[in-house]
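User: Structure please.
Assistant: Input sequence and predicted structure:
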Amino acid sequence: MDGKARCFAVRRGGISGRADVIFHQPWVRARLERLEKARYSASSLGAVIEEIRYGTGTPPPYLEPSADTVPFVRATDIKDGEVVTETLLHIANEQPKSLDKCRLAGDELIVVRSGVNTGDCAVIPKSLAGAFAAYDLILTFHKTALPQFVSTFLDTEIGRLQLNLVKGRAAQPHINAEEVSALRMPLPRPEVQRELVAGMNAKRAERRAKLAEADALLAGLDGFLLATLGLTPPPKDDRKVFAVRSKDVPGRFDPHFYLPALLQNMRMLSDAGAEPLGSLVSFSDEVWKPAAHAKPIFRYIEISSVNPQTGDARTEETLVSEAPSRARMAVRTNDIIVSLTRPHHGSIAQITPDLNGCVASTGFSVLRGINESGVSREYLWCVLRTKMCLQQMLQRASGGNYPAITEPELAKVLLPVPKPAVQDTIAAEARRRRVEARRLRAEAEASWQAAKRWFEEQLLGGAK
């Protein structure tokens, strides 16, 4: 038994103003009671909050980064307790007076207010002083609470439990300032908070190092593949201003298609005798029909279900009666699915035997009739996920904020097709790197979860 009772009763006098069933689950009550008996006295978050502000729900126009712009921090920029600064969008530094409340000085705690990431939080680093915050909660604290300590606590099991209890909504998760202020938290002295945060920062650094090692393994596959194929990458050319002669325009008038860096990549492959994808595979048009499905549940693969770093796909069991309209692509063992939306992200997966019979989103193209006399499936999956191919997919995509590629354009992507022995060498190295990267990620995650349990136990341990 997991200790989580499915059937239980609550006396009317014990409801104490809350009628939601989950709140009164015995295991939930036990966890919350432990919080009140923690080593350090618990207080409401509101007792240490100096100010709560709301970010803007109407973002200003996004601009190219320059001396006159500043970052704009959105919910999607907050991941694993940190602000991901590499992908921040920028807005003009000068904004209307009405946006002053959204201006950040550094050391504020951002709490995601709505959507699937509700409750995620991160401390704004001092390097982002002057930036603006989007539609989220902006918290500053009295000196008795360190922002990094609060952020770390809210990401523990008991912190997440409290957030999950208050964020549920019929349409989508949501949390407001009053609910955040009511959250309970053990509060040791600031010097103890600093010690605990320092311990967690050390573990975070270890985790970051393992993840970086895993990323480097996968990213380095491009260099290995080019060297093995005997290809020399063209010199770097990041020009954004360029000219194209009208006689060199083969029917496409979107400037992005003619970016020098993308054209150089295509010339390199063309000169090496690369072949178009359409000559090596056929595209499946097998449609899944919910009415013909014999069971009440089917396994669904969305684009977000494919990990772009590893190419692993996962499924979500979905009721046939609630099947999304885009759940229509039947997939079989040995298929390869390629995301047509934002294709350059690399959401490309092999359909292994355990995924046979699943249903994929119409946002995927399904490669099925693979000419294995010319190219192996393993090599094909590997080379499609390399930078040389992803750049072509981006080049042939259309749509500014939501680029997508059509199957006819995907069929034109050029792939080098070496001898079978070379393909096998590349595929074997890809497998090795994939297994090692998966191991490193699993170790990093296990270590980080153990660190969060340690942090929680330091606060909730026996009476002081």
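The mean pLDDT is 89.
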